[in-house]
Amino acid sequence: MLSEALHKKFDQLIARYPLKRSAMVPLLLYAQDEVGCVSEEVIAEVARRVDVRPIEVIEVIGYYSMLRRKPLGKYNFQVCTNISCMLRGADDVFEHCSNKLGIKHKQTTADGRFSLEEVECLGACCGAPAMQVNYDFYENLTPAKIDEVINEYKKK
Amino acid sequence: MPGYNNPMGNSPLEVKVISKRFGLPDSTSLKTYVENEGYEALKKALAMTPDDVINVVKNSGLRGRGGAGFNTGMKWSFVPKQSAKPKYVVCNADESEPGTCKDRPLMEYDPHQLIEGIIIAGHAIQSHQGFIYVRGEYRYLLDIVDRALSEAYSGGYLGKNILGSGFDFDICTHTGAGAYECGEETALLNSLEGLRGYPRIKPPFPAVVGLYGGPTVINNVETLSNVPHIILKGAEWYAQLGSPKNGGTRLFCLSGHINRPGIYELPMGFPLRRMIEEIGGGVRGGKKLKAVIPGGSSCPVLLANEIDVNMDYDSVAKIGSMLGSGGVVIMDEDTCMVKVMGRIMHFYAHESCGWCIPCREGTSWLNYMIKRFHGGGALPDDADTALDVSYNILGKTLCPLGDAAAMPAISILKKFRGEFDEHLKLGSCPYEKKAVSVA
Ligand SMILES: Cc1cc2nc3c(=O)[nH]c(=O)nc-3n(C[C@H](O)[C@H](O)[C@H](O)COP(=O)(O)O)c2cc1C
Ligand code: SF4
Ligand code: FES
Fold first, then answer.
1. Which atom of ligand 3 is found nearest the CA of A122?
2. End-to-end CA distance of chain A
3. Residues near ligand 1 with C-beta < 6 Å?
4. pLDDT by residue (tens digit) across B251-261?
5. ipTM above 0.90?
6. Do A22 and B253 touch (CB under 8 A)?
7. B435 and chain A: CB distance < 8 Å anywhere?
8. Which end of chain B has fewer CB atoms at under 10 Å, N or C?
């Protein structure tokens, strides 16, 4: 069941565009934020809302790297390893996260709380090395800072 | 607080135009904006004819800050005056070029400046609807810009009959969901129409047939943020800030092995050597400079002896590279250029939309070959083959992403051939032990 608030958000988003279909990706992303992934229910509802067949929604989902059909951990650690971050030790940042969380690239912890991913440039190159946990940015990372961030999320 | 730690640089050599309000208290609010010249340019522009607005922008020498550097006023002038279909202004806030992080502070600290620029562009091409396409990862910025938009509506700067001028204009934001290719203007239009982000064949150009088939102007966040200042202070004032045919200032993002990484607003044409040495405080740890990417990962790399260049579009093009998106990446003497190339090819292979074969296959093969090379598994012909593959991508693809992968590849294979040979001879990476990192 999608929440009342999400249905309202859908109404607002669809009203923005001259063509309903334009709202598809935003609807999918906001629904994913609530549900944890683009579930079958989300696909059916978004298709209904923007007047396309479910297969057309599935086709679009496959293109966008942030959209996923299976849930990830509650807190998704996305470590940038692109050029500016790589030059400032991103490989070590990734390894440190991997050791601390006990998972590798694209894995999720058994309790479903944490996932880890190596990602492309996040637009934080001047604060390299950088990562995002869900939508929050963490920059100028050091091992101590990473430990702090991980502990913060472990307490949540 | 997460999301609010964006590293702006600070140097007495900066010339602050679009970043001048960044430090003000509550800088995202309408109140602060209006108290600091905000929306004055809009008033002035609405009293001018659309043609006059276009001419001022054209004469200012403002060139697109998204990468290609096309004259902005000229681009606006290609939009037909009469059109059966509605016209649109689309702001490209997809910022995903590795090394580039300048559109972020423009939205984070001064969203009204961008909104004002978009409204003025709307008036110039007589459009009534604008969209801001923000990359999905920048969710907190979407919230900041949405808040600013609703304040602008309340203040009468958006909506019907703006400031009593009779001009109507609406703007809304749109979130992407992770795809570098959606920054390419025609892929962005498809994405905005709810499709996969595949590019469109040009011509027709978006200025004639764009969003929903209507004439569309697409400009970068930084480009549009400059517009209010140009209208307010004039084309000549703006032009003389920079170098000939390269008006104004630009946000340069200094990253990599530099002492003071950060985003700095400098006059167009500022010398690269001074940027590295005086602005960035030189190479970290007193090391020697090896290479510089002058404008994001799509640009050919420069050698340490090529940094006596003025950072404007024409001067950088003259030495075989590009000013690109303003991402200046510094690499020290211990950097392995084979690894650098491998990481860049990994990116393009991941982001290739797969529509055309030279890009889809070429980037994947380069990624595979160069990684194997770096790991010690090189074959004697690999460097030559990689160069051959790169030339078979260059100029042979539907959209410029193919070239964006081929150009840095060719430059690294040619300028650092010795490092490839060394890997081949040793059967391993000669730099792995030397390289140090902070983490
Ligand atoms: C693969 C690719 C990615 C691009 N990404 C961006 C981007 O993230 N932001 C941007 O403003 N321009 C990007 N561009 C350039 C746009 O296609 C377009 O030229 C630009 O938005 C025009 O605005 P401007 O004239 O103000 O620079 C990209 C181009 C290509 C080929
Ligand atoms: S060049 Fe690459 S990104 Fe562009 S259309 Fe071809 S496959 Fe897609
Ligand atoms: S390269 Fe890591 S944030 Fe840009």
1. 3
2. 25
3. B 64-68, 70, 92, 94-97, 180-181, 183-185, 218-220, 223, 399-401, 404
4. 999 999 999 99
5. yes
6. no
7. no
8. N
